[in-house]
């Protein structure tokens, strides 16, 4: 086993006195919970077998590493949960995009210390397996990437996918030195991130052929073996063509081909390949020297069958195969190997450990096998060299190396903000909800029933489920109806106003809610009309918006007007000729522009003489009104005022420092505390609107700064947001973070994530912080931008 870098690799050897090896107790080391993503039995493929072996051996030798598997499945697979429910945490349908996002959310909510991706291009959905990027971009824990194949000449798409995965990975594991060198030369992966750990192998005594031959009824035979899933890429026809020469020299030879035809080849071509090989053996007159074991056998039986062989043959024609589990097993069991020099064989069989031959060369196979069988001394010498080499790869050594790799990824993870596209979990959000709606407040993380509910938070909750792509459509629609019902119930058609506060006893605490809560109600109705996940919710939102919009004439708060204007933007996205929404934007734009002109001073470019909450919403509404209505004055006023308020919210150290709630009511002044998550959300979403109007990198940079505030880049170094369950603390006081996690804070963080992720996707390709495939059936900011531009053009 070798561990280290792409150059100057350091060899690590295991103590050969394995019976006395002391297994580490889970109480001696920190327990690490690892989420493994890849194929798993009963799927029949090499990676599934590898993953199963790894889980078993880590449990045996490093029980402090607990692996939960997220198994890839397709429509033909048996349910892995039914077979391995103790280790399967979830399944991911290869061709179901929602499953990848859902798995990322589940992993985040599980509190996994690291995510271990078993990568092969053929096991994930999408083009060249690019569906896995949706998962990798959303997980919060450090990513460990095991590459079972590193192509020397990848396609453009394959190269892009691997570059993206490598960019996200904290540690990269390969099983060959050649693979490590390719990562360095083709992708520029630094030495500090690459670890070479050769494929694990069993530890069994040497030289027990006769015992296992007798079990198979082969006591008097010389046994050649090839093992694995059958397909044209195995080169078996060359080994069969070599048999006539071998048999003529050694008539006691039997060649055993063990393994079922690859399931995907069966689905496409049936048993045509196997039948062609059987026909070839008949034509060459060696059918009696060929035994087919047409089964997918489990690991223990595989090892028993390998023990019965004298010479193991891998005649693969392709030279790019980085890993072969059966080759590792054969070497560790002390078998003489005759192989073509594909990547894994070239390294494992070097220095006389095995015999390397040219590909597609039956004569070379025959000559090498005959030479070994002619000289029992030479045969045993090769077998003993193989067995000695295999001591470096046995499972205890492999497990030690993996445990070291995991610990390095977990403890040495970069101390920086989580990736912008890492999707927050939703467990904290759901814990704040009941069948009525979302509670307002919490004591710590415990919902506070005494404070009841409010329209403001249930409106924000509806906004979240409209855009949360971590939810399936069915789940989101179910939640959306709950929050829509709250909004509907808050509406009083006789007074033509919304109520806001509702007690836990389901009694309204007021006849009419605040102007701001009424403005926010119009906002969520417009957003739902544009982004709801089914037509019925769209119809409901349009209908109630149109019924409620006349009340805007009575609203006096500039913020209420701004909120309603943002709702009008959503309403116009769905119906570009909606006259009431257009009139609302026109009235609101004129009002905000007048306020800005009246309150402006040389050092105060703001709409009011005081700063309140949700300040950037005023600028955002004016930007949207100017863009959609084609009013350049409004647009520029909105952009300039947003730049001003952004400048006020940056500390000398370059952190985002939102206007604190202690500031409210202070003339031409502001204080740093208490800092609220709502301000970060408003800053990010306003920056997104500004970027759509003026694609200046400044807007993304400032939005990112505001997002980092949730993760410790703030005046107190306090981490407020938890990607695991999606909760967020209620703010930062002068003494540090508020322990409570109320609805407003949770929703501000969740919505901030979706806003920053959407804005990130609008950046030029070479500047995207988390490059990802073109997205998404829902929530794609670019698509919404284009739709808005069409609507704006229609209105002009």
Which tags fit this structure?
elongated; disordered C terminus; Glycosyltransferase; alpha/beta; 796 residues; Rossmann fold; disordered N terminus; 6-hairpin_glycosidase_sf
Describe the secondary structure blueprint for this structure.
Elements: E1 2-3, E2 10-11, E3 32-38, H1 46-61, E4 65-73, H2 80-84, E5 88-93, H3 97-110, E6 114-119, H4 132-136, E7 143-147, H5 156-168, E8 169-174, H6 177-187, E9 194-196, H7 209-215, E10 222-227, H8 236-249, E11 253-258, H9 263-269, H10 272-284, E12 290-293, H11 299-307, E13 311-314, H12 325-332, E14 336-339, H13 343-348, E15 355-356, H14 362-374, H15 376-390, H16 395-411, H17 427-431, E16 442-443, E17 446-447, E18 453-454, H18 455-467, H19 473-490, E19 491-492, E20 497-498, E21 501-502, H20 515-531, H21 535-548, H22 558-574, H23 579-599, H24 616-629, H25 632-648, H26 677-693, H27 697-708, E22 732-733, E23 736-737, H28 743-761, H29 781-795
Parallel strand pairs: 3-4, 3-6, 4-5, 6-7, 7-8, 8-9, 10-11, 10-13, 11-12, 13-14, 14-15
Antiparallel strand pairs: 1-2, 16-17, 18-21, 19-20, 22-23
């Amino acid at each position: 086993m070798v561990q280290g870098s792409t150059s100057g690799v350091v060899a690590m050897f295991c103590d050969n006195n394995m019976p006395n090896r002391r297994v580490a107790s889970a109480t001696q080391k920190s327990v690490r919970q690892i989420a493994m993503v890849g194929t798993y039995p009963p799927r029949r493929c090499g990676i599934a077998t590898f993953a199963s072996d790894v889980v078993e051996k880590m449990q045996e030798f490093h029980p402090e590493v607990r692996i939960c598997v997220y198994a890839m499945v397709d429509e033909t697979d048996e349910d892995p949960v039914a077979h391995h429910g103790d280790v399967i945490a979830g399944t991911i349908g290869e061709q179901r995009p929602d499953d990848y996002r859902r798995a990322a959310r589940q992993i985040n909510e599980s509190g996994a210390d690291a995510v271990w991706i078993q990568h092969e291009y053929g096991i994930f959905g999408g083009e060249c397996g690019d569906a896995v990027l949706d998962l990798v971009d959303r997980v919060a824990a450090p990513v460990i990437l095991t590459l079972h194949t590193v192509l020397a000449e990848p396609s453009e798409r394959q190269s892009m996918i691997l570059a993206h995965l490598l960019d996200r990975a904290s540690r990269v594991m390969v099983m060959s030195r050649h693979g490590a060198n390719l990562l360095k030369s083709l992708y520029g992966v630094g030495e500090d991130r690459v670890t070479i750990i050769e494929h694990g192998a069993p530890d069994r005594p040497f030289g027990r052929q006769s015992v296992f031959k007798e079990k198979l009824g082969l006591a008097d035979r010389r046994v050649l073996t090839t093992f694995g899933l059958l397909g044209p890429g195995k080169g078996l026809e060359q080994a069969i063509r070599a048999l006539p020469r071998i048999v003529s020299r050694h008539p006691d030879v039997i060649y055993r081909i063990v393994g079922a035809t690859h399931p995907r080849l069966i689905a496409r071509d049936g048993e045509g390949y196997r039948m062609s090989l059987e026909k070839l053996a008949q034509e060459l007159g060696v059918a009696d020297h060929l035994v087919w074991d047409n089964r997918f056998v489990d690991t223990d039986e595989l090892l028993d069958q390998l023990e019965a062989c004298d010479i193991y043959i891998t005649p693969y024609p392709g030279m790019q195969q980085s890993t072969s589990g059966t080759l590792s097993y054969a070497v560790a069991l002390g078998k003489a190997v005759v192989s073509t020099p594909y990547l894994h064989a070239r390294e494992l069989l070097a220095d006389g450990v095995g015999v390397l031959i040219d590909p597609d060369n039956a004569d070379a196979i025959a000559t090498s096998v005959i030479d070994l069988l002619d000289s029992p001394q030479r045969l045993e010498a090769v077998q003993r060299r193989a067995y000695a080499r295999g001591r470096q790869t046995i499972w205890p050594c492999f497990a030690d190396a993996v445990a070291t790799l995991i610990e390095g990824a977990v403890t040495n993870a970069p101390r920086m903000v989580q990736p912008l596209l890492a999707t927050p979990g939703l467990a904290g959000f759901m814990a704040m909800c009941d069948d009525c709606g979302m509670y307002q407040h919490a004591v710590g993380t415990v919902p506070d029933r005494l404070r009841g509910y409010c329209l403001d938070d249930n409106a924000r909750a509806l906004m979240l489920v409209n855009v949360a792509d971590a939810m399936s459509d069915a789940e989101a629609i179910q939640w959306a109806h709950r929050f829509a019902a709250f909004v509907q119930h808050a509406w009083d058609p006789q007074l033509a106003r919304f109520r806001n506060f509702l007690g836990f006893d389901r009694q309204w605490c007021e006849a009419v809610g605040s102007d701001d809560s009424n403005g926010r109600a119009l906002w969520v109705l417009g957003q739902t009309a544009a982004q709801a996940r089914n037509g019925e919710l769209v119809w409901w939102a349009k209908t109630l918006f149109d019924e409620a919009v006349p009340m805007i004439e009575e609203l006096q708060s500039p913020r209420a007007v701004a909120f309603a204007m943002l709702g009008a933007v959503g309403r116009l996205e769905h119906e570009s000729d909606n006259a009431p929404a257009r009139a609302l934007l026109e009235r609101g734009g004129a009002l905000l522009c007048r306020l800005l002109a009246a309150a402006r001073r040389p050092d105060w470019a703001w709409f009011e003489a005081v700063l309140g909450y949700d300040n950037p919403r005023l600028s955002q509404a004016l930007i949207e009104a100017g863009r959609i209505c084609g009013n350049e004055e409004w647009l520029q006023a909105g952009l300039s005022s947003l730049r001003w308020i952004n400048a006020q919210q940056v500390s000398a150290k370059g952190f985002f420092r939102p206007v604190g709630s202690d500031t409210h009511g202070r003339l031409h002044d502001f204080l740093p505390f208490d800092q609220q998550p709502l301000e970060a959300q408003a800053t990010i979403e306003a920056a997104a609107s500004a970027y759509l109007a003026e694609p200046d990198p400044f807007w993304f940079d400032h939005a990112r700064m505001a997002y980092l505030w949730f993760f410790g880049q703030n005046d107190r170094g306090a981490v407020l947001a938890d990607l695991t369950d999606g909760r967020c603390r209620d703010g930062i006081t002068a003494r540090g973070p508020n322990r409570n996690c109320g609805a407003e804070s949770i929703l501000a963080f969740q919505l901030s994530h979706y806003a920053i992720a959407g804005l990130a996707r609008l950046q030029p390709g070479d500047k995207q912080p988390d490059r990802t495939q073109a997205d998404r059936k829902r929530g794609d900011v670019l698509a919404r931008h284009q739709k808005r531009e069409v609507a704006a053009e229609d209105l002009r």
